[in-house]
Amino acid sequence: MITRKSKREIEQMQAAGDVLVACHKAIAGMIKPGVTTMEINNFVEEFLAERGATPEQKGYNGYPYAICASINDEICHGFPREEQLKDGDIVTIDMVVNLNGGLADSAWTYAVGEVDGVGKRLMEVTKSALYKGIEQAQVGKRIGDIGHAIQTYAEAEGFSVVRDFTGHGIGPTIHEDPHIPHFGLPNKGLRLKEGMVITIEPMINEGSWESQMDENNWTARTIDKGRSAQYEHTIVITKNGPLLTTDQDKE
Predict the structure, then answer these.
(1) Residue 1's pLDDT is what?
(2) Do the beta carbons of residue 9 and residue 173 sit within 8 Å?
């Protein structure tokens, strides 16, 4: 079932988004060679607890951590670990914050030290693809318009779009209807309505778009060891255009 959020619910989700944004900005200052993603996970646990928030994905379908931390060829749902990040890695930190029942979901890919030119371009194109999709998140537009904008842009830049994982509705639980593919045809799919809250979260690969699952049954990685990047925002569909509850650049 697709729910349209009330003003009060959107305010709660924005408050959660504010905490999530502050957490991502703190993480950005931590990312460097030698840091472990488990250290980042533990930092997030403490950061949220100090602000009266909780990591919503911890325990979700048995997921054991506060964040997902996906390195290089890992597409999504990478487990935090004690392995140190190396110069030239890229790492995606994805988290869902619950503050008093309001949810916010955002992933961000970070460069570790000095990343090569292709890696930098992969990150730039993925972030730009996210905003191409957000431009289509308008009352009266269709879900296919979002995916088409992302796919045509990313593929024209020489990259591929992951098909196996999508954006989604959010609130009151992490994953709600509708699914938001990052590929597709314009003027197709469900029509967007005021009050809907969705995530757009393109995962873009430097090689093939296809994925394979690790033995932990959570972590997806590319089939060809090519790197993958992801950027994600939580977005409210409003009559005045898309409202990003996880916007890191409001100022």
Answers:
(1) 85
(2) no
